[in-house]
Design goal:
It is a single chain. The radius of gyration is 19 Å and the shape is elongated. The chain is built from 10 helices and 5 strands, in the order E-H-E-H-E-H-H-E-E-H-H-H-H-H-H. Helix content is 48%, strand content 13%. The protein has helices at 15-28, 40-44, 58-63, 65-70, 98-112, 124-127, 133-143, 148-155, 159-173, 178-187; strands spanning 7-11, 33-37, 51-57, 75-79, 90-93. With 196 residues, the chain is α/β, with parallel strands linked by helices.
């Protein structure tokens, strides 16, 4: 296993799906780097043992079962729906809404690496507290699914104030979606995954 930033590999011929998953993985775990390959042979040509985990299309796993069975703990099979053939592997259903996929990724990271176990520490810039206490309260309620009016009522503040906090949070974090806010909130311990 290489030292430094852990490396993940995505092995899937679907370029668009790979690009989306790569982006999500880097949001969920900003300390990683992600390489992608369109075939098993491409992976084998690039020192496959350097990868911390493999995210692999089911057909590639089935076509190269011996390799992935030896690396079962490192392999996450990308499936379109529940599939009993892959019951011995960790699976990630990719045919779900974005919020559900993000939640599955976060649950997988928290389950496999609680409190950052076996992962290098986050860079200092990512460890800093960027948001005010009030912004953290608003963030927590946003990722739990509350709408602006409900947040205003819960925190006893005006609707315009909630909208301003929401805009400031997104600007400070440099994100544009609730999914990205969810990833930030869960990975920094501001919201428990069971509440989203």
């Amino acid at each position: 296993m290489a030292t430094g930033r852990p490396k993940m590999a995505i092995i899937d011929p679907n370029t668009l799906a790979v690009m989306g998953l790569r982006s999500m993985l880097q949001e969920v775990m900003p300390i990683i780097s992600v390489d992608y390959f369109s075939s098993f042979d491409e992976l084998m040509d690039n020192a496959p043992e350097q990868y911390f985990h493999y995210f692999v299309a089911m057909n590639i796993v089935l076509g190269n079962l011996a390799f992935f069975q030896e690396r079962q703990r490192k392999t996450i099979v990308l499936i379109a729906s529940d599939h009993s053939l892959m019951s011995n592997f960790h699976c990630l259903c990719i045919n779900v809404p974005e919020k559900e996929l993000v939640k599955s990724l976060l649950a997988m990271v928290q389950g496999a690496h609680p409190h950052g176990k076996n992962m290098p520490s986050m860079p200092q810039v990512l460890q800093k507290k960027i948001l005010s206490n009030r912004e953290l309260e608003v963030l927590s309620l946003i990722v739990q699914g509350y709408i602006n009016k409900e947040i205003a009522d819960k925190l006893n503040i005006g609707l315009a104030t909630v909208i301003t906090h929401r805009r400031n949070i997104m600007d400070k974090l440099g994100v544009k979606s609730v999914s990205a806010l969810t990833i930030y909130a869960v990975m920094h311990g501001y919201v428990d995954i069971s509440k989203i």
